[in-house]
Each structure stands twice: as C-alpha cells, then as structure tokens.
Write a structure and sequence with these properties.
The complex is a heterodimer. Chain A is mostly helical. Helix content of chain A is 64%, strand content 0%. Chain B has 20 helices and 12 strands. In chain B, strands 2, 3, 4, 5, 6 and 7 form a 6-stranded antiparallel beta sheet that branches. A 4-stranded antiparallel beta sheet of chain B has the order 1-10-9-8, with no helix packed on it. The chains are: A mainly alpha, B alpha+beta. Chains A and B meet through helix 1, helix 5, helix 6 and helix 7 of A and helix 13, helix 14, helix 15, helix 16 and strand 9 of B.
Chain lengths: 168, 693
C-alpha cells in the first residue's frame, strides 16, 4: 500500500483545522436584536431618491425618501415580520431596484454564480494546463524534480540567490 | 480664442491623420520591399515625415489645450463649455479643473496627454527606428479618433447656445471644488492614456514580427510609469470620495470607480506576466492579449461612464458619443484579432511551466486571480444593463454584492502576494518552501490570536471573518517580505563588513526591480490591512444644539455652537465640536464639519471634518438641518485603520520608484562554492556580484 506523504507536518495541519473550525463557529454566530436587524436590512436596500446609495448611507440634505423608508423598516421590525417578509414588502412598494444586491432566484442567480464559475473553470484549466506542460517535458521535469529534491543543491541555490540577489 | 482653438484642433487632426496614413503607407512599402529608387520619396523619408507630423500634432493639441485654459481663466463666456463649467467667482486653481470637468474638456485632456506621450515616443525613436515607427503610427490612429471626436462630435470651443453671451457662467460642480480634483483626473488620465503606448508597441511588434523581447524592455518603464499614475489616480479618487461625498467610505463600487479599476487589474497582471516573457520567453500570446485588453478596458471605461450606458454618481459628463466609442472598440478588437491570427506562430513560447510549485506558476495564478477580479467587476458593472434587457428590470448591484464576490478574490490575491516571491524559477522544492514558510506562519498565527483577543466581544459576521483572515495573512506576507530584506542585508553585511543601512542600500541597489517590487507588495499588504478595518466601522447621528454631546467609540463630541457665513462663492453653515477621549480634550482646535451651498447654482457640498490617527479616523459630517427643530444633524463615523490605506499607497509609490531606478552595475569577484559531483565543472565556480568595492 502506498503511503501518502504530506508536505506539512501533522500538528500544523491539526492546528489549521482547529483554526478553521473556530473561525466557522465564530462566523456562524449572529445577533438578532432589532438594532442589528435594522442595520443589516438597511444595508440590504438602496435609497430610492436616485442618489444610488445604500439606504442607511444616504446623506442627502432633506432627502424626502430615506427617512420614510427607514421608518417603514423600523415599523416592520417592530411588527415582528421576518427579514424576508420585510424585504418583499419593500420590493412590492419600490420595485426590485430597492434591493442592494441581486436575489438568488431567476436570472439574478446568474449574477452570483458567474464570477465563481469563471474563476473555478480558469483555476482548474490552469492547473490542468501546467500539469500537462510538465508531463510533456519529461527530461526537464525529471531534472527539476531531481534538483528540487537535493538538499545540497537547494542550499547552494539558496546561497546564490541570497548573495547575488538574483534567481537561479 | 475660440476660433484659434478650433483651428489648431483641426490642424492637429490633419497632422495626426497624416502621421497615421503616411506612416502606414511607409511601413507597408518597407514590409513588401522592392526598388525604392523610382519613387519620388523613399519609404524611410515618408516615415520620417510621418514622425515629424506626429511631433507637430503635439504642438497643435497643446495650443488647443492652452486656448481652452486661457478662455477659462479669462471668463470667455462666448464658449458654451466655459459657461457650463466655470463662473467668475470660481477660484483660479479650480478653473484649471474646469478643463476636465466636462465631456469636451476631458476628451481634449485625453488627446493632449496622448500627444505628449507620442512626443516622447517619437523623440526617442533612435532606440529602434522601425519599431518606434510602427508604435508611432498606431498611436497616431488612436490620436486621430480622439481628435475626430473633438472636431466633429464634441467640440470644446463651440459657441454659446442662442448666440447671447451671458454675464456669468453656471459654475463648476461643487463636488469638483476640492484640491484633489486638480490632480486626481490628470493622474487617472495619465494612467488610462499611458497604456496606449505599451499597447502600440505590442501591436506594432506583432505586426512586424519583431524578433526577441526587446520591445518589452523598451516598454517596461512606460508600463510601470503608467501603472504608477493609474494607481495614484485611483487612490486619489478614493481619498476625494472619502473627503467630499460624506458617506463615510472611500469605495462605493460605482461604475466610474469600477471603470478605473479594471484596466488597473489587467495592467497589474501584465506587469507580472511580462517578467516571464523577459526571463524565460514564455506567455507571449497571453501578454499580448493582456495589454490589448488593458487598452480596450480603458476605452470601455470611458464608454460605460460617458455614454450614459450605466448610471453613476461620478458621471459628471454624459453625451451621445457611445456609438463612436463602440465603433472604435470594434475596429480595435478586429485589428488586434486579425494581427494576432496572422502572426500567432511568432508568439510561440520558448519554455513552458515545469512545476505547479514555481515562480512561473505563481505568476500564472496571480494573473488568474487578477483577471477573475476584473471579470467580476466587469460582470457586476454590466449586469444591471443585462438584467434590464433580459428581464425588463434593472437589478441593483451595490457594495453588498461586491463584498461577497470580490473580497474572497482579494484575500486570495493577498496570499499570492506573499507566496510568489518565495518561489524559485522553474521549480521549488517543498523542503525549501516549507522552511521559508515557518516564520511567516508563526507571525500570521500570532496576528490571528491577537485579533481574536482584541475583538473577543465583537459579533463575528462575514466582514469580521474576512478581516481576521486579512490581518493574519497580512502579517504572514509582511514577515515573508521583510525576511527577504533581512537575509540579503545580513549576507552583504557579513561579506563586506558594511553597516546594516549601507548593506541594505547595496542590496536594494543591486536589484532595484526585485526589492522595489517587494516594497510594492509590502504596500499592498498595508493597504489590505487598512481595508480590513472597514468591518469595524461605527456611526452615530443626532441633531445637536449648542452644548449637546454625542458619544462614539471612546470619543465624546461636544457642540460649541453652530455658525453661518458667506463669501462671494458660497454660503456655509458649520458646527464647532470639541472632542474628548475619556474626559481629556483631544484636539486644540474644534472640529468644524460644514455644508456649503454654492451661490451660482444652489448646489450643496459636504466638507467633512476628519481627525485621522493610526488607529482610526473620527470622521464628522454636517448633514443639514433637522426639519422638525432646525438643529444641525451631525453624523459621526469611527473608521478604523483608514490611514493605513494612504500610507500603504505611499509605500507602493516608493517601491515603484525604486523599481524604476536602474540597478547598480555589479563588479564581479570569484568565489569557490563547494559542490557535489552531479554539477558540471563550470557550475562549481560561481561569480558573485559585488558592487562598490
């Protein structure tokens, strides 16, 4: 049976795992108090006065719109409506443009998926391409692997690099 | 002066068109060869006349720019553009800014800067006459397009509508009446326009099947200068938005901001991947398309924001020039594609990437991430237009969308900023790589632990999570970069016995490009750490009468009073606020946020009061008067780490300037390095560079 040798020591991997789990736990904690909800929902909507700013960041002097919208939001939260219901009522009243980000339904979903899809395809494509190039250059690949694995050569390369400030 | 301006613009167009046509004909004749003796003028002489026409075109466009500036300074309201963008009471520095505050003026600035770049290119033609002739002709084609726009579609010297000359003009947009607006647009334009030069060299080199990589050596400095201008321009824009728009942030993912970021991203990718072509003859096709894309994105940015295709709070000038830009873009794309298809066999790589763990592949991934970021921004900018076309409803994409998509990409880029420089060309062994990662890993972990301790009471939402990752990665990357300086300095110190500062000077001087580049990366890390503070922004807002207090973070703001004043340009009202921290007065002078209303057009402008420290900015805005009680509404923001962004920019600028300085010429000494038998004898003795001795 072939034993897979990891390039990093197990304790380091375990520490990384622990860090990741901690981060995910912390990340999943969230507050649900009305002020926090007001702040969160207020940043999910745009002011419709034409300023193109997020509702809670509209700073126009005497803006006729944002005050009313904020009051509506406060009323909605105080009335016990959930976030989705509040957002829906704003969409019905002001149109889909009131939302600061696309929804996750219909064509809007494409807005979210496309950047990740393109990045993922490009990433996979690049890895595939580099591996393919490396495979098609057996002599160079072998030489590189041999030289890369030799501690004496590594040390010499490192010294040359340090002392000349150039790459070898 | 209007007639003079129009005339010199027409002359400039004629000269640029001659440069383009005569240059093109001469290069074609030179390419096909054949007897030149029977012709009235040899191709070489024809090319020289084209070059001189290009130089003369610069003089003519400069005269037109001078005419516009002179007209603004002398309040010549017979010109419609001056009426729309200036007035008598406008302070003189802002009269210069009037030149680029509107469509016509900004296009004239574009043409002028392009002519200036062209002048430098044409005067330095002896570096490589034929390549410069190609580049100069391509530049002339672009110049002809912009001058045609100025002469036919958006003439800056057009007469006032109705023929009646008004007593005064409408004044400059108040948002533009801020000191940075005098330098931000020219910087940004120097960046946008500057990318035309490497584009022209790349296209020219491909057309003439230029042997070798000399065109890259010639254009490297052009590209770096251009990149520097664009970087400074983008950041000045951020600072202007922060100081003037009064919403407490510096980047709103507005289409105009996005338009400036896209060519910056592809330009940055080009600066990195071009090194692979220089050093190893790789990525030739990729590099050509990167610089083509960068140029076209500069044009697309202008199309997006100036043609009214997408709405923007920054779009100070819009008109119906969209069709012109679309046509120009299509022609540019067709020429690039045709030239590429015709000459693609000339762009075959001499080497290929040999290992996933190598400097080359890190450049590949760096390019991948930068292009992914560029695509995301382009996608986000165009999506509202697409959704309106497909669904009939314009979907809004604000900062919330970009935060979800672009921030993870940015974090990955930060990671590569540190990993890339640690890798060797061709292949790195995991052993040496792991050794290099230990110390950065330790510092990164320490930073993460400190972060969690300091913010143990914070709600861990998405922003805080990314902030944690950024700070940890930033510490690791900064450690990796500093280690490179420390190691090199220590070696020189040991070898030469010089003190640490002299040793570091020598280290950097021997390879300015490498160590300047590291400094740029360090600046990027500092900027990212500055961005990470955004997750902890705090705000407070209340109507404040005299004596009222407002608390935000550790600060207490006490209103000393509210005042109204007037001058010949604007009315202003402001509050004076004393700032206390834990009961101690922080500032000798009170903060004075104000709201101005310009007399000539009644437009308001916010003047933010900002107390900036390493830890955070106390940013105070006078929002206006409460309609119920007439008291001024004061909004305060506590924005952590914002100063780090501006400091990071300075480090980036310093690093780029160092990278632009030629390296010290090394003298050579010979040192014998013990080597094992597998090396060829010639490799056993290695020449070590040592300068100054």
């Amino acid at each position: 049976m072939r034993i897979l040798r990891l390039p990093f020591p197990m304790p380091l991997l375990r520490s990384l795992q622990a860090l990741l789990v901690t981060a995910v736990v912390c990340f999943s904690l969230g507050a649900t108090d009305p002020t926090e909800r007001f702040n969160e929902l207020g940043h999910k909507m745009m002011c419709t006065c034409g300023c193109g700013q997020v509702l809670l960041e509209c700073n126009h002097v005497g803006c006729q719109t944002s005050g009313g919208m904020r009051d509506e939001l406060t009323t909605g939260i105080a009335g016990g409506q959930n976030d989705s219901l509040i957002l829906q009522s704003f969409v019905q009243r002001y149109g889909a443009t009131v939302l600061a980000a696309p929804t996750t339904q219909g064509f809007d979903l494409v807005a979210w998926i496309m950047p990740f899809l393109v990045a993922a395809l490009a990433l996979v494509g690049t890895i595939f391409l580099v591996r393919n190039w490396a495979k098609n250059q057996p002599s160079l690949a072998v030489a590189a692997a041999q030289s890369a694995g030799d501690p004496a050569l590594d040390a010499m390369r490192e010294r040359i690099r340090r002392e000349t400030g150039t790459e070898v | 002066m209007a007639a003079f301006g129009s005339l010199v613009l027409l002359i400039a167009l004629a000269l640029a068109a001659y440069n383009f046509v005569a240059g093109g004909v001469a290069l074609r004749l030179l390419a096909v060869g054949g007897p030149g003796g029977q012709r009235r003028m040899s191709p070489e002489r024809l090319a020289e006349t084209a070059r001189r026409a290009g130089i003369a075109s610069f003089v003519a466009v400069s005269a037109a720019a001078f005419a516009l500036i002179w007209s603004v300074l002398h309040n010549d309201f017979s010109i419609e553009y001056i009426v729309e963008h200036s007035n008598r009471a406008l302070p003189t520095p802002y009269k210069f800014a009037a030149m680029w505050s509107g469509q016509e003026g900004s296009l004239l600035l574009w043409a002028w800067l392009l002519a200036a770049y062209g002048l430098v290119l044409r005067l330095s033609h002896k570096a490589d006459v034929k390549l410069h002739a190609y580049a100069g002709t391509i530049l002339a084609a672009v110049q002809t397009f912009f001058l045609m726009l100025l002469v036919i579609k958006v003439p800056p010297f057009g007469g006032v509508r109705g023929g009646i000359i008004p007593e005064d003009g409408n004044g400059l947009n108040p948002l533009l009446q801020y000191p940075e607006m005098v330098i931000h647009p020219p910087m940004l334009y120097l960046g946008y326009v500057g990318f035309t030069v490497p584009f022209a060299f790349a296209l020219g080199a491909l057309m003439m099947r230029y042997p070798g990589e000399k065109w890259i050596h010639i254009t490297r400095r052009w590209t770096m200068f251009t990149w520097l201008f664009l970087t400074v321009g983008v950041f000045l824009g951020m600072h202007w938005a922060y100081a003037v728009l009064g919403w407490g942030g510096y980047w709103g993912w507005d289409p105009v901001e996005n338009a400036s970021l896209m060519p910056w991203l592809t330009g940055t990718a080009f600066l990195h991947s071009v090194m692979m072509q220089e050093k190893r003859g790789m990525m030739k096709q990729w590099n050509v398309w990167l610089i083509f894309s960068t140029f076209m994105l500069s044009i697309l940015g202008t199309l997006l924001t100036r043609a009214g295709l997408v709405s923007s709070v920054h779009a100070f000038a819009q008109s119906t020039i969209g069709g012109w830009f679309v046509t120009f873009l299509v022609i540019t794309m067709a020429v690039c594609l045709f030239t590429y298809i015709l000459n693609r066999d000339h762009l075959k790589s001499e080497h290929r990437v040999e290992s996933l763990v190598s400097r080359e592949s890190s450049f590949l991934f760096n390019n991948l991430v930068l292009l992914a970021a560029c695509f995301t921004i382009l996608w986000g900018t165009l999506f509202p237009v697409m959704s309106e076309y497909i669904e009939g409803t314009k979907t809004t994409l604000s900062g919330a969308y970009y935060s979800h998509i672009a921030v993870p990409i940015g974090v990955f880029l930060l990671l590569l900023t540190g990993i890339g420089p640690l890798l060797a060309w061709r292949a790195s062994s995991f052993r040496s790589y792991r050794r290099n990662l230990i110390l950065p890993g330790i510092f990164g972990a320490i930073a993460a632990i400190l972060f969690v301790i300091v913010h143990r009471k914070s709600q861990y939402d998405e922003g805080v999570f990314y902030s944690l990752i950024t700070v940890a990665l930033g510490a690791a990357v900064a450690t990796a970069l500093v280690m490179e300086y420390v190691r090199g300095t220590a070696v020189i110190h040991r070898q030469t016995g010089r003190d640490i500062f002299q040793s570091m000077f020598l280290l950097v001087g021997r390879n300015t490009r490498r160590y300047g580049g590291f400094l740029v990366h360090l600046g990027v890390v500092i900027i990212f750490v500055g961005f990470s503070g955004y997750a902890f922004n705090q705000t407070a807002e209340m109507p404040m009468g005299p004596g009222d207090k407002m608390n935000i973070g550790p600060y207490t703001l006490t209103n000393l009073g509210n005042t109204q004043e007037s001058n010949h340009n604007y009315d202003t009202e402001f509050s004076q606020l004393d700032v206390y921290e834990h009961g101690q007065k922080v500032l000798d002078q009170p903060m004075a946020p104000e709201k101005r209303t310009y007399l000539v057009n009644g437009q308001p402008q916010t003047m933010v009061a900002n107390h900036s420290t390493w830890r955070w900015d106390l940013y105070v805005v006078y929002e206006g008067r409460d309609q119920t009680n007439g008291l001024p509404i004061i909004k305060a923001f506590l924005n952590p780490l914002v100063m780090w962004i501006w400091v990071g920019l300075m480090v980036v600028v310093a690093g780029t300037l160092i990278a632009l300085i030629p390296s010290l010429s090394p003298s050579r000494v010979t040192a014998t390095v013990p080597a094992r038998g597998s090396l060829p004898p010639s490799a056993a003795t290695v020449g070590l560079a040592r300068s100054g001795d």
